[in-house]
Amino acid sequence: MTTKVKHIAVLTSGGDAPGMNAAIRAVVRSCSYYNIKCSGVFKGYEGLIHNQIEELNARSVRNIINKGGTFLKSARSKDFRAVEGRQKAYANLKKNNIDALVVIGGDGSFTGALKLSEEFNFPVVGIPGTIDNDINGTDYTIGYDTALNTVVEAIDKIRDTASSHNRLFLIEVMGRDAGDIALNAGIGAGAEEILIPEENMGIDRLIESLKKSKKTGKTSSIIVVAEGDTSGKNIFELGQYVEEHLDGYEVRVSVLGHIQRGGAPSCYDRVLASKLGVGAVEALLEGKSEVMIGIVHKTVTIVPLKEALDKRIHKHDMLIKVADITSV
Ligand code: ATP
Description:
Bound molecules: adenosine-5'-triphosphate
CATH architecture of the largest domain: 3-Layer(aba) Sandwich
Strand order of the largest sheet: 3-2-1-4-5-10-11
CATH class of the largest domain: Alpha Beta
């Protein structure tokens, strides 16, 4: 590989996701493999602004592939949103003789990376790390598969209570803009109804559908609601509405919250993170910048960051049909 890049830094930014450690490990070890220096930036862009940078070697990342969270810590940085903050970040990159930066995070982190690159002509590569699976140009983001399994396990447990008491549970899962977690975990856990941001079925249709199911002999029900659901009611208001309009069930609400982010990454996420980490270093060594390393049809791909930031057009039609058919 012909390259001017001799020293790469890596950081994690935005919400943490299981598998971020595996991605850091792959970046650090790829640098070792290709005989270039690698540094870790602690606390995302905030650490870049405050020069919290340490050199890492292959042994610095031992025993982390199996751990959730990110050992580099993550942060949301207000200062990095302003050009003055990015100027300080750039000055620290130069001070540490760093030639390129790998950013592991979501769309906000990619927007920041793109600005840094455009303003200071500094090479950046993004790795999609977010449990929401809401990034354009990649089939999967790191952390999504683990989060799905965590959600299914939690719903399975709630189902035991629901069926023992003739209860109807509304379970809120993560997904502000994308219904991927709700739909897939909902189908996997046998939910009765699934409410997602991309599709508004309307509350009255929801009640009608629940009444119909009750008539067919159902005695308990699970409704999975993505946090970005557009019914116009929050989950507690929705629960109250359902209770007022449906006889024969006790209604309960459960918000899964932050347990969805934690835990050891699944094997899928570890392998995905490893592939994308290697891909990120190789892309920088090939002189690429302002790109995201993604996975499409099982192949590692290089997507312009601008494209990764486009609104994701995701067709859920097949999953919605499967959910409808399997919940009769
Ligand atoms: P998640 O999907 O988990 O929310 P994210 O990467 O989208 O991850 P954000 O909080 O949106 O998380 O962004 C992370 C950081 O990226 C912000 O704290 C900020 O420092 C930087 N960032 C976000 N948007 C911008 C922007 N428009 N300009 C510069 N920097 C930004």
